[in-house]
């Protein structure tokens, strides 16, 4: 892509409800656009408070690397022709971080802002802003409004901002509408190489034993075997002690600084030439076998080719090597016994070590030798070097961990991989009415309904039984659609002729790529679609007969929502679908998957228990999968991954699974991968800059009870890139604006979440290696809403623990009343008389008391991420019959038909009650977390607020405060906002104990 061809396209759509300025109740408005020293101006719309322009302008982008630092300013003016002047109507400013490619652009309606505190504005301006790289589009400028000397750009770009450069932009054929003076684009700067530090050896220092992490609350303490343990491993050249890396070498940093460095012997087999003929036909079916000690890797054989090409990389763990000679053998595939062709030998002491960011080692031609070492005909191109998991060849290499148990066909199923879940949209279909329906039987009125289908999702409107051929529905049907939009929306109008018999009256097919997108709640214009009636001609052909019936629809893709594809308690992403609404990231989350110990055997191989495990981590749209460690109950992964964090009130989920696709039973793909356990970590509970190294117990609930499947060692670090933006997030709504302006019902959310999980599972299941459906469902907690007696009891006891403080306060007050402790009672009486005499001290005293409690609790703040708690989850004392009920299928198979119906109804209702009780408990736990330092930033904000409130209330008369509060609570609806207030947003972001629920 040529960077200096980048253009910023701005389509001025229209304005709405502008302020009248001409003294006659109207305005003659126009818009001026300013960007990067360039200005454009629209035409003037006379006497119109809701003008429509639909004019497009293109700006040159002088320096694409600084695009995110530029702003687009749009000013709306009223033109007064009589005196040749203009008056201000409003302005908007759009940051460069909101610019998106043309394919992702939608029309956004921005509320007009004031120019100064004395300005009076109202209304909205609709713009469509995008970046495009079509060289055929010319950019023209009206007036130069900024001097180059006046523009000062920062010399150092923050690390988090560099990620917002565009790597690929679309090239649509968009018409040019404005003819003005052209301005040449400035030179573009391109940054290519990324720095990777050189390889350093880590000294061997004995590692201290894991340290048990004690919980502050004794009531929630669980068995030591199920508790979290703090570790101090060597990571990135130093030992982690108390969350800080104590470096033992001169390394200042490393790309893989959260994992233990592992060395591998890499062998790249590229190709061969002039191999000797081994068959009677004068040809050879060659393949290569790479051997070192007991480990070997085999390439695929290529039939009848004396100059084959493989280009395969093998990786052998250096710590497992028990030989000093590497042999690369070329063999001829045969029916009975493979023939020896030739080999190459390498002494491991002479193999070079590659240190990134050095370029990859160039392969060389090596002459083949026979078993005696004498040179023969034929050459093999190889590259042999020693590297680490930071090597580019590591993810696609065939590892020696699987070389003894996995064949070449299944080797792709064990590789590490990064997946990106598809971007999901809510598709809203408003079926308004139909016109001139023609039923099959002319003598009756149709009982019509509309069936809407997209992929596997099917919804129907209610049937209309009115005596008319023009039925009216006006129903909203909601679906989930995923990019790319390669499916069609199929709507069919059907007639219920008889019970169980429906006839199609007409059908319309709408490609999803043609559906309009929107990012707010603006009304979408409706359209009439002609119905086509399929008439069967023969078995293999359908002829479509057009007739006069029409269907009135309003269809759009809603990008202002966040498509919920996971449990709301464990959401890893809260951003809306439309990229224009995304804000810059607030930090970076780094995860190092170190190793697992003491895993429970999941299968039997060679008469012994073993496991083939891999880890899956999910956060936002990015899913990662480590390589599968074959036949190992204590696997070492040592893989590191990074995510951008946009909201602290999100959860990282890490799961461990057993790969069941490697054996003979897994060849057909019907065997499910077994779950070993998972870990959830809420980002807001992590301190910034600290390295958390803990051993997490993998706890899974089985029909026989809770069971520990092993321990997973992780290293986690959350780095804040914008502290101000992170604190600002605590005042923002948890979900995008559309969830509050046009909310969904609980039933709609459950249905849409189910469809979203199915779409994500289907897309990730088509990758290579596939991320199977059972893995996606387990990571997304799809069964968290189903009825469980154990969960209901756990939520009830969570609720009761919230009121423990009130019960304790009541008991304490009872002791005061009975003079159990005379000294305390006298002090309480003195305090009570003082507060009665000076009521203005009540509120300052309460806030000051909470401030002191918060400061006192700082010393007891948690030093570890949350983890599964068996006692909180009521998993230790659960009854076997309750477990049988929890693991029972839905609907049940334990009883006759009548009992089954009642039982299923009870489970459905109880599941709702369970959710309500859990939500109430969550609110109480959030109250407790205000002063518990569970979320260190939230508690710091609240404690600071308490101190300021105490000072303000101390100097302000109580009557004034009471009057202000009363006036605010009874304020006029004009001064109310549809979005939640700042205190409510802050409260909803506080962490609860849902992260510790099994």
Key attributes of the depicted protein:
single chain; 998 residues; alpha+beta; five-stranded mixed sheet; C2C_MCTP_PRT_plant; membrane
Summarize the structure.
The chain is an alpha+beta fold. It contains 14 helices and 44 strands. The strands form 11 sheets. A 6-stranded antiparallel β-sheet has the order 11-12-43-44-35-40, with no helix packed on it. Strands 22-23-16-19-24 form a 5-stranded mixed β-sheet, with no helix packed on it. A 5-stranded antiparallel β-sheet has the order 25-39-38-41-42, covered by helices on one side.
Query: Mind summarizing the main beta sheet?
Result: 6 strands, antiparallel
Strand content: 25-35%
Number of helices: 14
Helix content: 10-25%
Which ranges are low-confidence, i.e. pLDDT below 50, for 5 or more consecutive residues?
Answer: 141-206, 214-218, 536-545
Strand order of the largest sheet: 11-12-43-44-35-40
The mean pLDDT is 82
Q: Decide which structural class fits the backbone.
A: alpha+beta
Structure overview:
With 998 residues, this protein is of the alpha+beta class. The chain is 18% helix and 32% strand. It contains 14 helices and 44 strands. The strands form eleven sheets. It has a six-stranded antiparallel beta sheet, with no helix packed on it. Strands 22-23-16-19-24 form a five-stranded mixed beta sheet, with no helix packed on it. The chain has a five-stranded antiparallel beta sheet with strand order 25-39-38-41-42, with helices on one face. The longest helix has 32 residues, at 897-928. Mean pLDDT is 82; it is low at 141-206, 214-218 and 536-545.
